[in-house]
Fold this protein.
Amino acid sequence: MSNYHIKHLEEYYQVYRKSVREPENFWEEVAEEHFMWHKKWDNVLSWDFTKPEIKWFEGAQLNVTENCLDRHLPTRGNKTAILFEPNDPKEAAEHITYKQLHERVNKFANVLKNQGVEKGDRVCIYLPMIPELAVAVLACARIGAIHSVVFAGFSSTALSTRINDCDCKMVITSDGSYRGAKTIDLKGIVDEALESCPNVKTVLVAKRILSNISIKEGRDQWLQPLLDEASTTCEAEVMNAEDPLFILYTSGSTGKPKGMVHTTAGYMVYSAYTFKNIFQYRENDIYWCTADIGWITGHSYIVYGPLANGATTVMFEGVPSYPDFGRFWEIVEKHKINQFYTAPTAIRALAKQGLELVEKYDLSSLKVLGSVGEPINEEAWHWYNDNIGKKQSPIVDTWWQTETGGIMISPIPFVTPTKPTYATLPFIGIQPALMDENGNELKGNQVSGRLCVKFPWPSIARTIWGDHQRYKDTYFSAFENKYFTGDGALRDEVGYYRITGRVDDVIIVSGHNLGTAPIEDAINEHPAVAESAIVGFPHDIKGNALYGFVILKDVGETRDQNNLRKEINQIITEHIGPIAKLDKIQFTVGLPKTRSGKIMRRILRKIAHNDISNLGDTSTLLNPEVVQSIIDGANSESTN
Ligand code: PRX
C-alpha cells in the first residue's frame, strides 16, 4: 500500500496508527518513494525536546528545487507551474510552465551568485505577489542561500528589524506594488529601512509599476538586465537535510519578532505530503491559495508543497475587493479553480457583500475549500459551505502555525466527515495533547485545555535564528517534553479538535498574528504617551480587532483626543504596518496592575469585550480603584 495518497477514512486511521507507532519507518517510506535525493539519510529521526534538538533525515543530501522543478521536466515540462493573475483583471494572466520556471529560477540563481551570494548567506525578499517573488525564493534555495521573505505590507522599521536580525546581505524588492486601485512605493520603504542596515550591500529591483525610483549607485541594480545576461543553467547546490532553507518571522507575545528557522528535507517532505492529501490534488487540477508568500501559508502551500507535487499553483497579486467584491469568484470561474484556500476574514468580508456577486460566476469547478489562519465561526463556515461550495465541496479547516511549517490538524476532504468550526482530526504523524494548567495531560474525549504536540513531525521549526534559548523558553518550557502551541483547544466526544484561540498575548487580527508588546512599544514612542496596553476584542469581519488603553503623560493633556488617536495609529503604521492599527483607543488614568507591576490583561480583555459582570478576582491588584474608572471611560469614550 502506498502511504502517499489517502482516499478513505479507514485508510486514514490505518496510516495514522502506523505513523504514530512506527514514525521512523513511516516517514522513511514517504521520503524514499516520493522525492529525489543525492544521498539517502543515515538516520531518520533523532530528537530531544529538552535541549531542544530535532533532526530529520540526518546525513541525507538533496536540493529542494530539484524536487520542485527538475524532476518534473520530463513529464510536466509544458504543464503550468505558476499561474499568475495580476491585480488588474484587464492585464493578461501569465502561465509559467515548469520548463520556464526552471529556466527563470536558474537565471535568477546565477544572478545571485554573480552578485556574491553564497550558500548559507541570508537574503531578504520584500516583493509583492508577482512571479519574481516565487522565482527569488526558489533561486535562493537553488544555491543554498537562506531566504527571509518579509511581507510587503510591513513598514520600513519592521523591515529593517528583520533584515538586521538575521544579517541579510542582500534585499530583493520592486519599484512598487499594486494593491487594488492604489500603488505602494516599496522601494521607498526599502530605502528608508536600509538607512539602519549597514550590512546590506546589494539591492535588486524588479520592475512592476514603472515608477520613478531613486537608484543608489553601487548598491541598487535593476533586476531585468542582470537576468537577461544570466545563463539558464545553474547546478543545484547539494544541501544537507538539516541545512536551513528559510527564516520566516512571526510575532511573539513579547520582544522582537522571532525568526523561525525551517530546514531542508523535513520541511519539503511534510509540506508536500500534507498538500497532496489535504487538498486531494489530482494531476490536472488548478489550485489557488489566496495567501501572500510573505506568510507561512504562502511558503508551504503556494510555493513548496504544490511545486513538489508538480501542481499548478495560482499566484494572485490583487485584493478581494478590486475592482469589486466579486473578484475571487471571477478568478475561480476564469481559471476553473479546483481547490480554493483562503482565510475566514476574507470569507466574512465577502459574505457581507450579498450573493449577487457570487451568483454571477460559475463556481462548479470547485472541489475542495480550505480555511486557515484563525478560527472560522459557524456563520462564515455555513456561508462558505452553502454559497461557494454549494454543499458539494468539503471545507478543510486547517490548523497550523509558522512554527509547524505545515498543516497539523485538518480534515482530509472526502475522507474525514467535516464539522463546522472543527479542524477535526490530527493529520498523519501528528500527536496532539491537551494539557491542564497544572501540566497534566487530559486524556479521553470531551476535554479542553492547552494544545501541545508530543512527538516531532518533519517540518517543525528547529530554532529561532540567533536565540535558541528563546526557542526553548517559548515552545518547550511550559509543558515537560512537549511542544506548546500557545493555542487552546477542545476535543469533542468523537475526538475532533476545535481550536478556541490563543492563550497568550498574541492576537490574531484578520488572520495575522500580532504580538501585543511590539504594538505597545510603538505607541509608547508617541511623546504624549506614558504607557499602554493592547487587548483583542471580537470583530465581525477581522475576527479580532485591537483595543488600546493608553495613559497620557500629562493628565491635563489638552490636545484633541481624536487627533491623538490618529497620531498613535500613524506611529503603529510606521513601526509595524497598517495591519496593526487599533480600532479603539481609550485614554485612561491608569492600568490594572498586580503588585509585581504586571498589567492584568484579563480585566482589560473583559472590559474590551463589554463583559464586566464577572471580572474575577481583583484582590491582588495594586490599584483596584482604577478598574471602575476604566469601565466608566469605556462607556463614555468616543473611540475611532
Ligand atoms: O492561533 C492559531 C491560528 O493562527 C496561529 C498561527 O498563526 P501563524 O503562525 O501566523 O500561521 C497562520 C497560518 C498557518 C495559531 O496558533 N490559527 C491558524 N489556523 C487556524 C488557527 N486558529 C483556528 N483555526 C485554524 N484553522
User: Anything to note?
Assistant: The longest helix spans residues 98-114.
